[in-house]
Design goal:
alpha+beta, 27 strands, Penicillin binding protein transpeptidase fold, single chain, 18% strand, 30% helix
């Protein structure tokens, strides 16, 4: 038997060895390498989705400061009430457990501390065997050596099992109670604190209380000296999986971000989803089973709602395909950009007369959707009625940029050359995505400026790229406002909705896109497999769904109807036009309409269609002059070019053409009365004007007493209209050189002069 001195020396050596071992134990990071779930929230902080971790768990990283103190108190009281008092293991509890085990008693004696539980969870230790228990103790000592009590407790609360595949209080609080761990009530905290001890039996149930949880919480309430106040621990349904296409994209784009705050508005998202579901259900008899929609705040370019299909989990319609990103034929939805470019390039203004007649463009012979032709038609009407031939005719005249160049610059991924698409491009000959369409229509709403879409907040405001001028954007918007609302004869612009439809060749895709208030919305109806359906017509299929959604958005009170006004500082003027010819009216024009044009760019001339002629009272035939020898009267008739007149006749639209001349009469050129006399500027006079200043040249003329309006031109460029008693102030924008100034009165009489700018 060793002497007491030797025993003491041995004990000291053991303690020194244990101390040295304690000091050199490796530092095991408690949460390094642990996979955590990602969460996506809507713009108001509501949970849209919580993803599974790499090991198929719901686990949300939660710092200690964001855990309810009630939960900490309840968990320690239930699991380890002496947690703060010993270094990772409880020697007394271990001793009692060892005695019971050696005596053949219960295998479990409550010896596991929270630190030991963390060691078991973190390192996958099987603690039911003696060797496993020793390893658990060793790891618990490691953790205690290198980490504070607070850090260990934090790791425990992030890894503790709470039933099913839920781990950690962050995920348990969010899934069971739809709140963060910080905001748990005492009763919710008590319910969660008893689950880790037996997560299989004590999982919270949906719509009913788990008796095993009730028994455990009753014991804990007794130790707390509190009552459960009839609280029933129930779970809400399992994790949200809202806006699935939208959230899937965000999770893919931000794989390392645990919490993603998105631009999506859950109320708007649900509105669009409900409208699509109801529309599909009510039109299923027509073979309509799928649709997609997108709502964007065009002022901030934020995606407010995105519905990729009529049913994400519906495999019969390939519901997991995202219709907002699928490339489809856009039908006629690209036509507005042809008109915007044509106005930008000075080819037309909204009231310019175009031809809707059989035409051939280098061997390409387009047809209208209805197979008919309406003859001469104003540009605004041609767009509103989606006539194909006028659009193709304008597309053939575009240059720098062409429609193809414009779309490429606008971010549309056209994989083939311009020659491949040819003049079929404006009729849906290429493919676009809904996202690309929404961006292009947002450019119309934003004065011609293309900006990227945003799906997360906060985000940086990006100025974007100028695609066309604010003036062209405004005029295009006005033209889109003339498209009638489905089922009504009145233009949708009366309700401040500016929209366009599209139908792909073969009836495979039906589209409708609208600019309204501060939103842009797009709707697509079709089949992802490309199956055709005669019901897939943009106006009658996608249009009604679009307006149901617009009405729902407005009914929700998130927006208000506002009249669209010209952008501040824009180069736009509103004048009277002849309602028939779309040109500047003369006194002979019986009907007039107000319209906008771009001074210096829009092609404006005086109306040559309406003319007043002498008509013989007896014969009803035309006279060239009033020589006083016959009783006659004056009448206004329409003088159309022969090609346009034949188009009217083919379209069944008779015009009021003049009668033939009385035998012996001949047509005389010119008009009676004196042409306006230019008073300023002086003919052949030099003017010194510094470009970029406010200096201007005054344009004034003397006109006959029967003249009401004067129209001023520089070369062929229309400057503006004034009354016959007013002057117009012209600020030259070109360089030095000779310029021809012309004035035209409302009788069609004109005069001109030349000036030299230096």
């Amino acid at each position: 038997m060793p002497s007491p001195q030797k025993a003491l020396i041995a004990l000291v050596c053991i303690l020194m060895f244990a101390g040295a071992l304690w000091m050199i134990l490796p530092r095991p990071p408690p949460l390094d390498g642990i996979s955590f779930s990602q969460r996506v929230y809507d713009r108001n902080g509501r949970l849209l989705r919580i993803s599974l971790t790499s090991d198929e768990k719901y686990r949300i990283e939660t710092p200690f400061e964001k855990i309810s103190p009630d939960l900490v108190k309840a968990a320690l009281l239930y699991e380890d009430q002496h947690y703060w008092e010993y270094p990772g293991v409880n020697p007394l509890a271990l001793g009692r457990a060892a005695i019971r085990w050696c005596s053949g008693g219960a295998k479990r004696g409550g010896a596991s501390t929270i630190t030991m539980q963390l060691a078991r969870m973190r390192y996958g230790i099987r603690s039911r065997t003696p060797s496993g228990k020793l390893m658990q103790i060793y790891r618990a000592l490691q953790l205690t050596r290198h980490y504070s009590k607070k850090e260990i407790l934090t790791a425990y609360f992030n890894l503790a099992p709470y039933g099913k595949n839920i781990e950690g209080v962050g995920a348990a609080s969010l899934i069971y109670f739809d709140k963060s761990a910080r905001h748990l009530s005492l009763h919710e905290a008590v319910a969660l604190s008893v689950i880790p001890q037996n997560p299989t039996r004590r999982t919270l149930r949906v719509n009913e209380e788990n008796p095993a949880v009730k028994r455990a919480t009753d014991r804990l309430y007794a130790r707390l000296g509190r009552s459960d106040s009839d609280f029933q621990a129930r779970s809400r349904p399992m994790p949200a999986f809202l806006a699935p296409h939208f959230t899937t994209r965000l999770l893919r784009e931000y794989p390392t971000r645990n919490a993603i705050s998105s631009t999506l508005d859950l109320d708007m998202q649900r509105l669009l989803e409900r409208r699509i579901a109801a529309y599909v259900e009510s039109n299923r008899r027509l073979g309509i089973v799928n649709a997609a929609a997108m709502l964007v705040d065009s002022s901030r370019m934020e995606v407010i709602a995105q519905v990729g299909s009529a049913g994400f989990f519906n495999s019969t319609i390939h519901g997991q395909v995202d219709g907002t990103r699928s490339r489809r034929s856009p039908g006629s939805t690209l036509k507005p950009f042809i008109y915007a470019l044509a106005m930008e390039q000075g080819l037309i203004h909204p009231l310019t007369m175009l031809k809707d007649a059989p035409s051939s463009f280098g061997g390409y012979n387009p047809e209208n959707f209805d197979g008919e032709f309406v003859g001469p038609i104003k540009a605004a009407d041609a767009l509103a009625r989606s006539r194909n031939i006028p659009a193709v005719g304008l597309d053939a005249r575009l240059a720098h940029p062409t429609l193809y160049e414009f779309l490429k610059r606008g971010g549309v991924a056209l994989p083939r050359s311009a020659a491949f698409y040819g003049l079929a491009l404006p009729l849906g000959g290429g493919e676009v995505t809904m996202e690309e369409l929404v961006r292009l229509y947002s450019a119309i709403a934003n004065g011609g400026r293309l900006r990227p879409l945003s799906r997360t907040v906060p985000h940086q405001e990006i100025p974007g790229t100028r695609l066309f001028s604010p003036e062209s954007a405004f005029l295009t918007l006005q033209m889109l406002g003339q498209v009638p609302r489905p089922g009504l004869g009145e233009p949708a612009g009366n309700d401040a909705v500016f929209w366009k439809t599209g139908t792909s060749h073969g009836f495979r895709d039906a589209w409708a896109v609208a600019v309204f208030d501060h939103y842009v919305m797009a709707v697509w109806v079709g089949n992802f497999d490309g199956k055709r359906n005669p019901a897939f017509i943009g106006r009658t299929c996608a249009g009604p769904l679009l307006f149901q959604m617009i009405d729902g958005v407005r009914h929700g009170g998130s927006t208000r109807v506002e009249r669209v006004m010209p952008p501040a500082g824009s180069n736009l003027q509103e004048v009277e036009f002849c309602a028939v010819s779309g040109q500047l009216p003369t006194v002979a024009c019986p009907h007039r309409v107000a319209g906008w044009f771009i001074p210096g760019i829009s092609p404006i001339t005086a109306c040559e269609v309406h003319r007043e002629v002498f008509v013989d009272d007896q014969s009803g035939l035309r006279l060239s002059v009033d020589d006083g020898s016959r009783a006659l009267h004056r009448e206004v008739y329409e003088f159309w070019p022969s090609n346009l007149l034949s188009l009217f006749e083919r379209a069944g639209l008779p015009r009021r053409t003049p009668p033939p001349f009385l035998p012996g009469q001949i047509e005389t050129a010119g008009r009676s009365g004196k042409a306006p006399s230019i008073l300023s500027p002086l003919n052949h006079h030099s003017y010194s004007v510094r470009l970029g200043t406010t200096e201007a040249i005054t344009l004034s003329a003397q006109a006959e007493s029967d003249v009401a309006r004067l129209y001023w031109f520089v070369g062929k460029t229309f400057l503006g209209a004034v009354s016959s008693r007013e002057a117009l102030h012209w600020r030259p924008t070109g360089g030095p050189g000779e310029q021809t100034i012309s004035v035209l009165d409302d009788h069609g009489r004109s005069s001109s002069c030349s000036v030299v700018l230096d």
